[in-house]
Amino acid sequence: MNLKNSSHDFSGFDLNSYISKKNILINDELNKIISSSQNSNLLTKAMSYSLLSGGKRIRPVLCIAASEAVGGNEYDVLPAACALEMIHTYSLIHDDLPAMDNDTLRRGKPTCHVAFNESTAILAGDALLTLAFQILSSVHINNGAAKWLKVIHVVSLAAGYRGMIEGQMRDMASENSHISLKELEDMHSLKTGVLIEASVESGAILGNGNSEQIEQLKIYAKNIGLAFQITDDLLNVKGDPAITGKAAGSDKTRNKNTYPALLGVTGSENHAKKLITDALHAIETFDNKSDSLRALALYIIERKR
Amino acid sequence: MNLKNSSHDFSGFDLNSYISKKNILINDELNKIISSSQNSNLLTKAMSYSLLSGGKRIRPVLCIAASEAVGGNEYDVLPAACALEMIHTYSLIHDDLPAMDNDTLRRGKPTCHVAFNESTAILAGDALLTLAFQILSSVHINNGAAKWLKVIHVVSLAAGYRGMIEGQMRDMASENSHISLKELEDMHSLKTGVLIEASVESGAILGNGNSEQIEQLKIYAKNIGLAFQITDDLLNVKGDPAITGKAAGSDKTRNKNTYPALLGVTGSENHAKKLITDALHAIETFDNKSDSLRALALYIIERKR
Lengths: 305, 305
Description:
homodimer; mainly alpha; Farnesyl Diphosphate Synthase; two-stranded antiparallel ribbon; 2 strands; about 0% strand
């Protein structure tokens, strides 16, 4: 893809190495948080099972990258990065429940309610959501309190009843019925977009970005969030099930509303490219500390899983 | 009961009027928060249905009373009071689910999953839990941020995987099996006690109580929390179903572990009285701004529902 030939050349940036390093940091911290519980009971086992099952960690990586883009460092932002992954994981556990999407496989492993049981899965989800706010409020730096309070507000708005949860309501309501492109975008913006935006915004706040930087980063995030969902839909049509961990064409079988169904495969690919171009444009004036964000934007649509 | 004849005479305190006034304040604020959503969709309807169904509002009233006891005022603490009621309500919605206690009636009305459906009830619970943290982080007073961050930490610890949620895990695990008095107390301390403690502690923090006052108030709260549960168990045995809204003897039918089953009715009553005496003792040196807390302690064991 020729998107790399923008006004800013970041072709030398080694994204794989960047993601690997950040993933080690994030997974170590998540492990530390969960295993700091003295007695490992059924509840913490279920929480760990889902939280430490090898997700892509896109939200925490974006949070750290956004912080670095405005001059912050990875350690200051780590609690927020972990909290975002906990909220993402809780949403997956609850979405997979029999009363919701009734999914039995996630990341190639039995879903939480299959591996444990339904009540434990509901409570493990509740516990991860609550733990996220415990972690976000555990940083006892008096003069940083206002910043963390702001992050808690941003994250709770994104995850809440006018954000991610309303997105899941709409997703379920729209199965087996046709919706417009606008309705599809609104649904995905709520279901996955707003938490991706909150990840980038949280990182920028904690990295002490100024309000103009934060606004540009939010535009960046909004665009990559939608592109992320389009790529998910495309992978469901074209992806290799051995790599994606999901059955090919399962969206079509379940009569789900998807971008390929509404725009076709080529139309969806072009739409995703346009969004990534807009994302790169939003951070055009940022220096090379934002190369990770630039490379992540491309990765969003080029990934194979 | 002669508990009123303690070293501090609060017999003139009009608790009914106090609770009524606070309930109006709390319900008005909860209404305002929930109805500020522009479009009333299914999700917000389910959230309102459970949140505004006329609970006793014990946690928010305790939060406000604790704040006033250390010289704070009701308005400063109102967001915390509302957040605590949201967390309590979310826990009831999830506990009532078919995969959990499978209850169809709550406060004399169909439970959330019966009135709506299971997926909506799960998401309405998730949304109320998330909204609680949104409200706790919405107070934008820069020099008060550290206090609110501390409250978020206290509340998330109480509501989380080493608090309320673990309590529900143990409650379910203990059905149809016999547990000791120690195990019963630990379970109830987790399931209901810690959130009651957090309610009192949050109020005391926001009212600018000093650390000694906060410690004494936590002892008060720990004792009334357990007495509250014992009274719940006693009402299930002796209460009037027309007033309690629950079938008499339903705990016994469901083979639940209760205080009357372990200590007998008189033994349970005496245990509850002892706890209330200890609660009153903990705040003995507090002035008459704590009379609401004193009267609430008695109300806990004298209530009929």
